[in-house]
Amino acid sequence: MFLYYSCLFSLVYAVVETIYRKIASNTVTTFGQTVITFIWAPVIVYHFNYFDYWSSIVLFPLNIWLCELICGGFMLYFYNKRYWFYNDNLSFFNGLISIYFTIYWVLLGYIINIFLTY
């Protein structure tokens, strides 16, 4: 079942992120970001199975930031490769996370929670 969610989440991520990037900066998402989403998908599913309905939605940004810190930090430390860089006043940890996108992560958490519930 985790393989199904990994494939589905990484595909949806790649499409949504590419659309967003095309509109915002005329670029596309990277293969590395899609692979990280594929790997992190079981953690996302576990997150929604562990917490109650509203807590899982409100705490979902922490899940995303943890993914960005662990995966982004790993790639930066071991391979000197950066798949994303947040360059705004609300970014932290050397541009690995940004709280600017919190409302988007909460909205995404709500959508994923509905998807996993039904």
What does this structure look like?
With 118 residues, the protein is mainly α. The protein has one domain (2-117). It has five helices and two strands; from the N terminus they run H-H-H-H-E-E-H. It has helices at residues 2-25, 31-50, 53-58, 60-79, 102-117, and strands spanning 91-92, 97-98. It has a two-stranded antiparallel ribbon with strand order 1-2. Helix 1 (2-25) packs across helix 2 and helix 2 packs antiparallel against helix 4 (60-79). The protein is globular and about 40 Å long. The two termini are 15 Å apart.
Low-pLDDT residue intervals, each spanning 5 or more residues: none
**Straight-line N-to-C gap:** 15 Å
Helix content: over 70%
| Overall average residue pLDDT | 94
Structural class: mainly alpha
What amount of the residues lies in strands? under 5%
Total number of β-strand segments?
Answer: 2
Number of helices: 5
For this entry, what is the oligomeric state of its chains? single chain
Count of domains: 1
The succession of helices and strands, N to C, reads: HHHHEEH
What is the radius of gyration?
14 Å
| Strands side by side in the biggest sheet | 1-2
The largest sheet is:
2 strands, antiparallel
Shape: globular
